[in-house]
Structure formats: C-alpha cells, structure tokens
Amino acid sequence: MSTLRQMPDERTPDLADRTITGTTTTDATTTDATPTDATPTDAKFKLSLNVVFPLLGGRSTWAHEHLLPVFVSLIVALMLFAVPLPWLQLPIGGKPAPPGINEAWQVFAILGIYIAFIINYYINQMSGRARSGWLQALVTVIMFWLLTTPFWDAWYDLFNVVIPGQNLEKSSNPLAVIGGNIFGTGLGEEGFKALPLIGLALMTVAFAALSRRTTGRLSALFCDLTTHFGLREPLDGIVLGAAAGSGFFIYETLVQYVPQVIDSAKGNMAFDGLVQLLARGLPQLTAHSAYTGLFGYFIGLAVLRPAMAVLLIPLGWLSAAALHGAWDATSDLVNSSLIGAPVHVVIGVLSYALLAGAIFKARDISPSFLHRCRKIRSADLAA
C-alpha cells in the first residue's frame, strides 16, 4: 500500500494537512493507501459555518478588490438616475449652462469618469501587484488640477509657440507635420502628464535615503511613506502613469471638447455630445493611459537605476511622444476615415501592446520592495 500526500492548501484551512482516501480523510503524516481512481470530490469534510456562509470565512470576499467594479457600477447607475445633480454645474462663457445642456453634460461627465475608472482598474490588476486606489485617484486629481493652473498655459506655449509645434503642424510638408505633432503635442503633453510621477519618484528617492540614514520609528515612518505613496519601481510608474493620463483625458474631453460640441451643435446636442464622448473618449483614454504608462515604466526604471536616469527619462519621454505624435499626425495628414481609422487602430493597438509588454517585463524585474521595507521596519522597531 502506498501513501498519498496532499500539500497544505492555504485557501481551505479545513482541508489543510489532510489526505484524500477512498472512504475517509486522515492526517497527512500517517495514512493508508487510497485507490488510484480517488478524486478530490470523494473527500469528506466538516460542514463548518464558513462553508455555509462563505463571507464569514478566513478569505472574506469583502477583503478583496473584485467587488470594487460592481460597487462603482452601482454608484454610477444611481448617479445617472439622480441627474440633474444640483452641485455639478457646467460653465459656458463664464456663465452657468442652461438646464438642458448642463443635464446632458452631467451624464457625459459621469460616464467619462466611469470609463476612466474601468481602464485604470484593469491596468492596476494587470500589473499583478495592485497599488492603492486612493493614490491613483490622488494622481488623477493632481493632474486635473495642474491643467487649471497658469503653469499649464506656460508649458503649452513653450512647446507649441516657442518650439514652435503649432506652426509645424500647419505646414504643407508631411515630415514637418509629424515633427510638429511629436515635438509640440507629444513632448508637451507627455512631459506635463509625467510631472506628478517625477515628483513621486523624487520623493521616493529622498525618503528612502532618509530611511537609511535614520533609525527606529523615524526610519520606519519614511519606509512606510515610500511604501504607500512612493513610485519605487516600473510597476508603480505604469499604474500611476495611467492614472495621470486619465486626469488629462477627463479635463481635455469633459472641459474642452464635449462642451464645445454641445455649444455648437445644431441638432440633438445631447446625442452629439454623447457621440463625441464615446468616439473620442474610448480610444483617447486608452491611448493617454498607454502613453503615460509607458513613460512611467521608464521613470520607474530610473528609480531602480539612478545612474541611468539621464538616459532612461529622455528615452521614455520620446517613446511616449512619438506614439502620441503619430496618432495626432494621422488626423492632420489623412482626410479619409477609411484610411485614418485603420491607422489609428494600428497605433492604438501598438501603444497598448507596448504598455502590456512593459507590464510583463516590469513584473519580471520587480524587486520585493515591500518585503525589504517590512524587514527594515521590524528591525528598527525592535531596536
């Protein structure tokens, strides 16, 4: 008679260290043989409370993030039913928009933010080590706020007037148009979207240095700050880059493009605005997230290899700008939708394929930063 051993299963504590036999389940250390045709369904188990009520088990469903999309979807549905929302107002020409226009814009705003959430949630889960949703939301809000400041106006003028990107985009030379889109729109927008990421990366490097130079609780505090709020590696850069891209998309689409369409529409302005949101929003949100996520990958690499930052940062910036510029140049150079649409599809798929490749590579090279921080914190607190 041979012995069949089963590895402990962390997911099912009741069956851990137990062995399946033809008629009984016994301890894994001493057990009789089991028929070769025995299957896991033949095993007997105790009908405990956490089996009857799974939410009470050790791996509580409430502790996992897979309920978040369902919860957000329900909130979005309730908000759509509650439109018009009295606290959400669209200004047009410095004055409140008429009730009908404002109500349509509120629907677009809710749907646009919901689309942004779904994209970011997917990228976050795809990374294999999800970052805090609060940190992602903070990066998105900071990006949105930066676009409302005079700093954005000065930054825009630098890349579109001083360089000058706008004049090149209006040129009759196709190469000049492509160059204008890359060096004007591409470098300008991608560099601006990366500012929150570079700020977090610098903060991470500074706090990591302070953590090494201090001891005790102060060292543990700096380590905690880098753990929860830092950009420590390429995975962080990708996820937070996608969040920054979403903030840029939300502002650009909901504050600029959709209001312009609603204001100038002669027919059904609600329908025209919705078409604008979906036609522009779905591809552009994915594209903005892919561009900035790819740049964030290089920023995360620069944090891991500071000596190579002077090479990695420009390379990531130019890569994101080239993809962004190619997308915009297609719209400027191709008048036929039969040609332009397939080209946009190719550029969009290529951008997301590069982002996916960056995610998989980042997962391969990701250091166990959190494990190291826990070891440092435990040692410092014990000191």
Give structural notes.
The structure is a single chain. By secondary structure, this protein is mainly α. The protein folds into 2 domains: 1-63, no CATH class; 64-193 and 234-366, no CATH class. Helices cover 70% and strands 3% of the residues. It has helices spanning 49-52, 68-82, 99-126, 133-146, 150-162, 165-169, 174-193, 195-213, 216-229, 234-264, 269-304, 309-333, 337-365, 369-382; strands at residues 18-20, 25-27, 91-92, 95-96. Strands 1-2 form a two-stranded antiparallel ribbon. A hairpin with a 4-residue loop joins strand 1 (18-20) and strand 2. Helix 3 runs antiparallel to helix 10 and helix 5 runs antiparallel to helix 7 (174-193). The protein is globular, with a radius of gyration of 26 Å. The termini are far apart.
